[in-house]
Amino acid sequence: MAICVQKYGGTSMGDVELIRNAARKVIAKGKEGFQMVVVVSAMAGETNRLLALADAIDPRASAREKDMLASAGEQVSIALMAIALQKLGQQSISFTGPQVGIVTDEVFGQARIKSIDNQRIQAELNRGKVVVVAGFQGMSAVSGDITTLGRGGSDTSAVALAAALKADECEIYTDVDGVFMADPNVVPGAKKLEKISYDEMLELASMGAKVLHHRAVEFAKKYRVPLHVRSSFNDQPGTWVIEEVPEMEKLQVSGVTSNKKEAKVSLLGVPDRPGIAAAIFEKIAAKNILVDMIIQNVAENGLNDISFTVEKSALPDVLDMKEELTAAVGAREMVTDKDIAKVSVIGVGMRSHCGVAARMFSTLARNNINIEMISTSEIKISCLIREQQVDQAVRSLCEEFNLADSAK
Q1: Each residue of 294-315: pLDDT tens digit?
Q2: More confident residue, 159 or 302
């Protein structure tokens, strides 16, 4: 029998009536001939509320205890969803991540899934039940402790379960109608995509698009899980995230996205000799800090500057390493900048169309937006700019590449 995994985010689980609405969607999908697995997030705002309690006691609370706390939100949601399904006459059973064998590494707060044992889920499906699973959480392979997968981790849970169960579909229900070429809150009239490739969606998610978590897309691409991103508030088709097909290359740019959650770190006056960059980023990696953009200036008088970006949430950890980093490489000083943002244009069509970079840089120049750093891939160009100019940059780029019906 075909299997469908559905995921409902916090806004879809915001109150009792929304949970009932989601339960009705689950049952309707099941009537199409699917065995149903439902992954749910905590109710809207609940994870923030729980973590705020921890911060009020100790802003430096241990990551293990914060994971124990944050995971409680999903446990509430799974029970409520199972109760709602049962009230509507559908047999169901709820499980936490550890109960269904979602095993992770031990990086609390940003754990990665190592394996899933699907036997318990499959047994309950074969009994005719809808299986409701807590998203965002798993169990450490080392200690057996509860871990969480980071914000947006319920997407990852859903796709990983779909892969483990060899599901025929994975539907991601959210508060938007699908994947848009830009954030509709920034660009009124942004066009919705009927389908997008895994590679494009991965770049969009990594560059700041909020509709899907990038690790979920990584799973989907690796295991060829077809994703359908759609709204929980209507029955309209959404956006399919699938393998690349030839017609996708017709669009030079399929999306513009921005990320205001990055900070820039610069090590100034660094000696220009082999091994310096390795020394810096080995120490950063040892702290499990993710680095995005990196730029090294041309050496002058035997010294150069090295700049890189990290998530703003990781900046306190980098600052804690200030003396260690500067001493390790003999840098003159380390400076940081939180008032920056990244804007990116993305599209598989870049492989077969030239001039996208020139058009992007010219558009930013016309709007008096200075570029501080640039990074590229085969299907992406990203620029670091001032945070206060990022919305203007997104709107102007959407107009340049015709990604909205009325970019304003």
Answers
A1: 998 876 788 999 999 999 999 9
A2: 159
DSSP 298: P
Residue linked to tokens 């513009």: 256
| Sequence ranges of the chain with CATH classification 3.40.1160.10 | 2-175
Q: With bands split at pLDDT 50, 70 and 90, how would you rate the model's confidence at 407?
A: very low
- Number of DSSP helices (H) and strands (E) in the chain, helices first: 13, 20
Per-residue buried b or exposed e for 13-25, using 16+ beta carbons within 10 Å of the residue's own CB: bbeeebbebbbeb
Query: Nearest to residue 9, comparing CAs of 160, 239, 233?
Result: 233
Domain 245-408 has CATH 1.10.730.10: no
Helix (H) or strand (E) holding 123: helix 119-126
Q: Give CA separation, 121 vs 2, 18, 85, in Å.
A: 14, 25, 17
Q: Tell me the Ramachandran region of residue 236: left when phi exceeds 0, alpha when psi lies from -120 to 50, beta otherwise.
A: beta
In this predicted model, which residue has the larger pLDDT, 57 or 208? 57
Whole-prediction pTM: 0.80
> Within 10 A of 214 (CB to CB), how many other CB atoms are there?
18
Q: What average pLDDT score do residues 111-134 get? A: 96
Give the whole-number percent of the chain exceeding pLDDT 70.
97
136 closest CA partner among 105, 110, 171, 166: 110
Phi-psi region at 226: left, alpha or beta (left = phi > 0; alpha = psi -120 to 50): beta
Fold entry, domain 2-175? Carbamate kinase (3.40.1160)
